[in-house]
Amino acid sequence: MSAQLDVNIDKIDGQMVELIDAFESHPQIQPPNTHPTVFFLLDFIRNTHRMLKDVDPAKFAAGDSGARNAAQEILGRNQFANVLVNDSSGKLALMTGSDPNNPVDLGPEIKAKARALTEV
Hints:
Helices cover 63% and strands 0% of the residues. It is mostly helical.
């Protein structure tokens, strides 16, 4: 399956940077009262972006299975990030030590940027 993966690594990189920037601008990530859910999501997305930076675009383009598998993992993590960003059930809040009856609203910008990463 990953041998047929056709994605633009540079486009994903740019979209991930935009999403990270949106998270870093979110009022609930600002110290001293960083919201734990926002912090968790930003950390997850940053780690995924670091994984992307480790993918060699030349190897990916040449069909290297390691690079292709890494890219597939990154796409899956971006799908999962989108699910988490759009969680309204309270389960994510519970996992991150927040109030599950009052999940954080990340706003339309972050939601749109997370969704865009699933459409690559």
